[in-house]
Structure formats: C-alpha cells, structure tokens
Write a structure and sequence with these properties.
The structure holds 2 protein chains of 2 kinds. By secondary structure, chain A is α/β, with parallel strands linked by helices. Chain A contains 17 helices and 19 strands. Chain A has helices at about 5-15, 40-50, 80-95, 110-115, 150-155, 180-195, 210, 215-225, 240-245, 255-265, 315-330, 350, 355-365, 380-390, 395-400, 450-460, 465, and strands spanning about 15-20, 25-30, 30-35, 60, 100, 125-130, 140-145, 160, 165-175, 200-205, 230-235, 275-280, 290, 300, 345, 375, 405, 425-430, 445. Chain A has a 5-stranded parallel β-sheet, sandwiched between helices. Chain A is globular and about 55 Å long. Chain B has a 7-stranded mixed β-sheet with strand order 4-3-2-1-5-6-7. Chain B has helices at about 20-25, 45, 85-95, 105-110, 125-135, 165-170, 175-180, 185-195; strands at about 5-15, 70-75, 95-100, 115-120, 140-145, 150, 155-160. Chain B is an alpha/beta fold. Chain B starts with 5 loop residues before the first strand and ends in a 6-residue tail after the last helix. In chain B, a hairpin with a 4-residue loop joins strand 5 and strand 6. Classes of the chains: A alpha/beta, B alpha/beta. At the A-B interface, helix 2, helix 3, helix 5, helix 10 and helix 11 of A face helix 4, helix 7 and helix 8 of B. The complex binds iron/sulfur cluster (SF4). Iron/sulfur cluster (SF4) binds near residues 65, 130 and 132 of chain A. Iron/sulfur cluster binds near residues 109, 130 and 132 of chain A.
Amino acid sequence: MTRARTLFDKIWEAHVVEVQGDGTCVLYIDRHLVHEVTSPQAFEGLRLAGRGVRRPEATLAVADHNVPTTDRSRGIADTESRIQVDTLAANCAEFGIRYFSMDDLRQGIVHIIGPEQGFTQPGTTIVCGDSHTSTHGAFGALAFGVGTSEVEHVLATQTLLQKPAKNMLVAIDGALPFGVGAKDLVLAIIGAIGTAGGTGHVIEYAGEAIRALSMEGRMTVCNMSIEAGARAGLIAPDETTFAYIKGRPMAPTGAAWDAAVADWRTLPSDPGAVYDSEVRLDAAAIAPQVTWGTSPQDVVAITGAVPVPADVADEGRRRAMLRSLDYMGLRAGTPMREVAVDRVFIGSCTNGRIEDLREAAAVARGRKVAANVGAMVVPGSGLVKQMAEAEGLDRIFREAGFEWREPGCSMCLAMNADRLEPGERCASTSNRNFEGRQGRGGRTHLMSPAMAAAAAVTGRLTDVRELGAG
Amino acid sequence: MDPFTKLTGVVAPLPMINVDTDMIIPKQFLKTIQRSGLGSSLFFEMRYGDDGAEKADFVLNRPAYRGAQILVAGENFGCGSSREHAPWALLDFGIRCIIAPSFADIFFNNCFKNGILPVVLPRAEVDALMAIAERGGETLSVDLERQEIACPDGTTIPFDVDPFRKACLLGGLDEIGLTLQKATAIDAFEQEHRTRHPWLFA
Ligand code: SF4
C-alpha cells in the first residue's frame, strides 16, 4: 500500500526535479509573480550574467506597491517610485513577460490579480518575491515568498533549491459565530501559535470552519500564514475552489478543464496522513479580534483589554511587550473598546477583495464616518473596483464619508503617498502592525473589514456585533 | 558573492525578539533598483532621531560597535517581509554573521544568497554570547569550515549548518550557475510535467 500523503507531500513530490546528496531538492516552479520592488536587481543580475528567462509565459508581472491610489492621469509624482515602476515595465518588455501596467483595468495587488486571472491554480508551485505569496495556498497551491536572488533563480531556471518543509495541521472545528469572519479566525490562530509558531512549516488549514469559508475568506487565512512564521498556508481544493476558478481568463477550458479538475480532486490529504504537528481550535469560541501591539501575535478579542506585561514570565517577551505598549501609546489594562482611532484603512492583499468590501459596506451603509476620523477604501484590483462600483458599494462608502481610491498596496506598507503621521492610530485590515509599517510613528490595529468599518463610524475600536449591519 | 570562510570581528548585542525586516530596513529604502548603498539606512528608525541625527544610545552608534561585523539577537530574527534589502543593508553596513536562537525562514535563506552566515544556537549559548557582546568591543572568530565560534576566553561553541549552503558560502558559488548545469534534468522533468499537466503549459 502506498504511504498516506498530505496535500503538501503530493505537491512537493510532483515538482522535485532532482534530489541532491544532502537532501536539497531542485524544485520546479509552475507560476511566478513579479512586482516592482523586489525584481529590479534580479533582472539586472540576469543582464550582468548574460542570462535569459527560461519560460517567460510562466511569469506575470504587475506594479502595485508604489502606485498612487489617487488620480493616475499624471503618472507617479515621486521620482524613485516612478523609476521603479518604469524599470519593471522595461524589464518585462525586454524579457517578454506579461505585465499589467498601472492603467490596465486588471492591475492590482499581485496576490489579488493572480487568483482573479485564474493564474493561480491547485496543485501548482507558485512563488513571488513577496512574503504574502502564501495567499495563493487557498487554492491548494504550494505558494511561498522568496528573496530577490531566488526571483532571479526562478527567472533563469524555472526552479528553486529547497528542502522540504515540515507539515503542520491547523484544524478549526465547528462554525464561526455571527459577526466573526476569516480575519478574526486567522488572527486568533496567530495569537494561539505565535508569530514564530509556524517557522519551518507549511500550515494546512482544515476542518469545518475552513471548508465553510469562501475563496476570499480562505485567501485571507492563507495570506497571514507568514505572520505565524510559516512559509506557506494550504487549503485542500474543493467545489468552492473549482467554482471560483472556472471561466477566469487564464483558467483551463473545455477538455483541459475536465482533466485539470480530475487532477485537482486527487490533491487533498489522504486519510491517515501524518503531520509533524497538529493544532485544533474551536471556531465557536472565537470573537472578533484586534491587535494591541506591534506583532501580529499581539492579539485579543475586542471584548478584552490591553494585556499586562507584569503577568508575563518570559523576560524577552515582557521587554517586547513594554516596547510595544510604549510605541502604541497604550496603558496595560485599558479595554480595547476605549481605544480611539484617527484613521481607517480598508484594503491590502489580506482584505482588498470584493467580499471584504461588501462586508465593510454592510456596516458603513446609512452611517457616517466619525468626525476626526479619516477613512479610506482601497480596492485590491481594478476589477474589484469595477465590480464594487457595479454593486454600488462605492456610493455607500462615499456617502458615509470614506475615500474611494484606485487599487494598490497603499497604506498597507505606505510606500506610496498613503501613510500615517507620527502618533496617528489606525484601524487597518492589512496584515502587519510592525513599528512604522504604515508610516513612521504610526500605530496600527489589525482587524477585519467589518470591524474596521465599525471603528470608522464610531471613532474607536468597536465590537461590530453590537452595531449590526446598517 | 564573496566567499565566507573565517570571520574575526567585533560582536554587537541586539537583545530583542522578533526583529522584523521593517526594522532592519524600512520601506522608504526599498525604492532603490540597486543592491548597494543601504548600509547607512540599516535599522533606520532605531538608529536615527526625527531630526536625522544619530541616536547616541543605539548599539551600532556606540563607538565600540561602529565597526561590528557580527550581531547577536533574540528569537525569530528577520521576521516579516521577503525583502532581500534586509541582508543587503546588513552586508553593506559590514555585518557578515548573525547569531540568534531562531530566524524567520525567508530571511535566513536570503542571508546565504548574500554571503552572510546566520547561526542558530540554543538560547543559553546565545545568552552567553550576548553577555560577551555587551562588554563592548569584544571580538569573536567564526570559522565556517570547522563550524565553530571562538570566544575571547578561548572556548569554542560548535554550530550546525546545512552542507550545501556551507559549500556555497565557502566557495562563494553562483547557485544559478550550478542549477543551469542541470538543464538536461530540468528539460526532462518539464517534458514529463507537461504531459501530466498540459493545462499548465497551454
Ligand atoms: S498589500 Fe501589503 S502585504 Fe500585500 S503585497 Fe502589498 S504591501 Fe505586501
């Protein structure tokens, strides 16, 4: 009898070109996504070595980190940003790589457009010079972030040198309660296993609550796997996955579609497959989550309070907490619901998809953004924006007082003009609350789109369940 | 890439856990299209005040550590983004070796591609090295060939390193060049992969 294999084992084994003496594998890479920030030095490296791109058609490129989210008709004002974006366009032209420019309707955050175009498919290996490549694992693809040297390696060879990761199973039993979604779930998972809990591992998410999620929700969960230290997240493909992919521009059609789906159905982990570690959580016990500190593991339920460092035994951890609280301008013991916010950011590759915008709009509908709060919605792609506008979500946001922007990474990392001022406090649907992430001295609280919208209308961190839909 | 064989240099202490890549090199410096020149921006927020002046108390600004080549840090060093600008900035500053109880995966990987040796040691040994580093201006000798760190008192601490990565570092090898030598194997794999998954090659 053949060994019971996990989803990870199956994808891995199907992509090993060669195993070297010490166990390092030459791993074949099916799909490669490229953005402007982590690629210029890779293309330059190819040029310096006189090397070409092995399979240009396996790579898709887009500018997302540096692009303005306001009027684009006059291009990019910041010189360095403009050079970086122009460099990507020129590199793609030189090496024959598909590129969605800033003016293309399909432009958007790299991890949103891959799935949207059907470029992301189950059973594949996908890499990008970006840690949130883990997002694509929602499709049952082995997707992970790499550095620029590896970007160059993939461009030149369509392979990477890798050792197999360990396998962790995170099983979520039961159903998420009303008002609790994928973002709350993944924040709770990170809170439980810690920001280094997944180091060296690929996390497979399973269980009833995961199967019940939409593809958008699954992407939110896999997106933040890296915040738990994992290289990748994985969710077994199922009918929800196939329905999402079908008919997308780069998805297989006709007989090829049938063959692909038949193959994809063989991917889920075999019964009895063994994981290196397993974590189980009860979905019913999860409340809406918010972060209080400067690491994604610094998370509490909105019903909770800022934790007390003195209660923590580990010295390194206690020191980190004190530093976080100082940076965040918070006092131990303060109820989270008393924390007032200045800004609200709804967007990013974690929560910039159509379902996220619907969720936020349901809360914003018929309400007004609190005085003194600046709130913006940045759709994850041009197509998300178009769909949202067709549904009238832009009107709901605008009438409530939110700004409605052009697609891009925006204030998730504040590389463009969208950023917090020192000391400003932001309710954000992004994925990192690191010091300075959204602007020097900026204070980030991570949460779901519904929770961010609730904070926008009340002016403080708010339990969206008390607000209900408008 | 410059080979890494044996490094004797000043060791600086950074007793923090979860030092993330945004701390190592913040986003405003990611707009460069080059690898070099990032050293002056390393640890930017911790290193400089709002007025742009150096903060006197930050470790790498203190006279004893300005020329540090080795860094000792807490758990999960390099967490966060995949930006290779983090190792580039460390290298440009002069850091060639980082010692910590654990590292984030992508950062760890990126170090080897740039001639930086990340060394994982048990927490107790890291604590001991941290204490040495905190004395100010002490040097360590990191011998990759022998896989050991020599302390000022003459004692040595052994460490593990992946054999393939060790070979690449010792020889300053070009991994892409090595992989390109396997073109025949890659061609053969690709051929078979295409037969099994034709829709991926359409
Ligand atoms: S939205 Fe944020 S996390 Fe996602 S790719 Fe852009 S910068 Fe990175």
